């Protein structure tokens, strides 16, 4: 079983073939194939490390674009009559890893 470490959206993800994951939003339509910069690839026999990357070895297919549940950010200061409530929906792209 091959595993790889990819970098996208300022984060690193450990992935394997057939895995679904939610990443930071990427402008792509459902069904479109994306290539990710690969930092490491490993299987039972060998290990490949990039300096800094190995190239675009991992391909993923976009499944959907969506939004996470609302996160409430509340600011409050005691005895000053200060209270602020702000909500935020983070956008994501759901991707299936097709090929390593």
From TrEMBL:
<comment type="function">
    <text>This protein binds to 23S rRNA in the presence of protein L20.</text>
</comment>
<dbReference type="InterPro" id="IPR036164">
    <property type="entry name" value="bL21-like_sf"/>
</dbReference>
<dbReference type="GO" id="GO:0019843">
    <property type="term" value="F:rRNA binding"/>
</dbReference>
<keyword id="KW-0699">rRNA-binding</keyword>
<dbReference type="Pfam" id="PF00829">
    <property type="entry name" value="Ribosomal_L21p"/>
</dbReference>
<dbReference type="GO" id="GO:0005737">
    <property type="term" value="C:cytoplasm"/>
</dbReference>
<keyword id="KW-0694">RNA-binding</keyword>
<comment type="subunit">
    <text>Part of the 50S ribosomal subunit. Contacts protein L20.</text>
</comment>
<dbReference type="GO" id="GO:0005840">
    <property type="term" value="C:ribosome"/>
</dbReference>
<dbReference type="InterPro" id="IPR028909">
    <property type="entry name" value="bL21-like"/>
</dbReference>
<dbReference type="InterPro" id="IPR001787">
    <property type="entry name" value="Ribosomal_bL21"/>
</dbReference>
<dbReference type="GO" id="GO:1990904">
    <property type="term" value="C:ribonucleoprotein complex"/>
</dbReference>
<comment type="similarity">
    <text>Belongs to the bacterial ribosomal protein bL21 family.</text>
</comment>
<keyword id="KW-0687">Ribonucleoprotein</keyword>
<dbReference type="GO" id="GO:0003735">
    <property type="term" value="F:structural constituent of ribosome"/>
</dbReference>
<dbReference type="GO" id="GO:0006412">
    <property type="term" value="P:translation"/>
</dbReference>
<keyword id="KW-0689">Ribosomal protein</keyword>
<protein>
    <recommendedName>
        <fullName>Large ribosomal subunit protein bL21</fullName>
    </recommendedName>
</protein>
């Amino acid at each position: 079983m091959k595993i790889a470490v990819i970098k996208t959206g300022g984060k690193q993800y450990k992935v394997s073939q057939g895995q679904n994951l939610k990443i930071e939003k990427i402008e792509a339509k459902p069904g479109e194939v994306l290539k990710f910069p690969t930092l490491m690839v490993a299987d039972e026999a060998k290990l490949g490390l990039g300096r800094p990357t190995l190239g675009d070895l991992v391909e993923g297919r976009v499944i959907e674009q969506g939004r996470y549940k609302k996160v409430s950010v509340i600011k409050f200061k005691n005895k000053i009559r200060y209270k602020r409530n702000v909500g935020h929906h983070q956008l994501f792209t759901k991707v299936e890893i097709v090929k390593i």
